Structures are given as C-alpha cells and as structure tokens.
C-alpha cells in the first residue's frame, strides 16, 4: 500500500508541475520561455546530425543564453596546462556560446548577443531565425550570419 501511495504522490506532483509550467507559458504568451536542448541539427552544408553533442538554450521573458558543442564528436579533453596551441584551437572551435536579449514577432526570432565567444557575433547584426513551434519541439532556421540556412531542432527540457 505504501508503494502505491508513493507512486500516486509522484504522479500528482509531476502533473502539478506540468500544469503549473503550462499555465505560466500560457499567461506569459511566450512559448519560448524555458530550457531547451538540440536533438537534431542540419548545418548549411545539408549534413543532418541526429546525435548532436550537448547543448542548452535558455529563454526568459527578455533574455536568452545558448551553448553548444558542435560537430559529431565530443570535444577533445586535454589538461589545461598540457594542451598545445593546436589542441586549444580544436577545443575552442568545437564550441558555440552567446547570451543576450531577443525579440519574437510571429515566427521571426531575433537575438542580440551581449556576450559571445567570438567578438564578431557581438558586433554583427542581430541573428534572425525562422521559428517553428510544434508542442515541446522548436525548429530554428538561421536566416542570416555565418550559419545561414542551418537548422536546429530543439526539445523542451524544462
């Protein structure tokens, strides 16, 4: 009987958390608010990657933060003091990171990086992305910048 109560309690808690989250998004009117991860990516070259490396996108009501390991392999691991200059470049180039503000108008998402791994991302134009939302999945297609034409499919993790 105790096991059954624990199971019911867990189901009720999960349902309450889910309903609370859904209500928050409905009341804010912004379906992006939350935490997401890439589950599929298609770079501009068309090579679809269905087992992407770790990533995390976080959207609040006004700000976003995104980090992702690029490519199909985990980044190499070297001890901080023992990596050669070439190895440091390899680790650096396999990582994307920026954070800033965003606007959402219909299916157009514009991000304005305030801090980024690479300076040209901060000083360049706003990143424009076509946004497609299907339940807890979003697709982002880059309309401009170095990744123009790339597509990231993300699922909600929180």
Provide a descriptive summary of the structure in words.
The protein has an eight-stranded antiparallel barrel. It has helices at 2-28, 85-93, 119-123, and strands at residues 34-42, 55-59, 63-69, 95-105, 108-116, 127-134, 137-142, 151-156. The protein contains three helices and eight strands. It has two domains: 1-28; 31-156, Lipocalin, CATH 2.40.128.280. The longest helix is centred in the first third of the chain and has 27 residues, at 2-28. The protein has 158 residues and is of the alpha+beta class. Strand 4 (95-105) and strand 5 (108-116) form a beta hairpin. The relative contact order is 0.16. The radius of gyration is 19 Å and the shape is globular.
Topology (elements, then pairings):
Layout: H1 2-28, E1 34-42, E2 55-59, E3 63-69, H2 85-93, E4 95-105, E5 108-116, H3 119-123, E6 127-134, E7 137-142, E8 151-156
Antiparallel strand pairs: 1-2, 1-8, 2-3, 3-4, 4-5, 5-6, 6-7, 7-8
């Amino acid at each position: 009987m105790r096991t059954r109560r624990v199971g019911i309690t867990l189901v009720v808690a999960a349902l309450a958390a889910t309903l609370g989250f859904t209500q928050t998004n409905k009341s804010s009117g912004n379906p992006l608010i939350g935490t997401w991860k890439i589950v599929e990516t298609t770079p501009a070259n068309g090579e679809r990657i269905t087992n992407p490396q770790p990533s995390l996108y976080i959207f609040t009501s006004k700000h976003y933060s995104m980090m992702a390991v690029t490519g199909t392999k985990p980044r190499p691991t070297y001890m901080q003091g023992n990596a050669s200059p070439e190895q440091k470049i390899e680790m650096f180039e396999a990582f994307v990171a920026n954070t800033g503000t965003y606007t959402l108008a219909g299916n157009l998402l514009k991000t304005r990086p305030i801090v980024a791994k690479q300076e040209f991302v901060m000083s360049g134009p706003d990143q424009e992305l076509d946004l497609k939302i299907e339940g807890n999945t979003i697709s982002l297609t880059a309309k401009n910048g170095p990744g123009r034409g790339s597509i990231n499919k993300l699922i909600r993790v929180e």
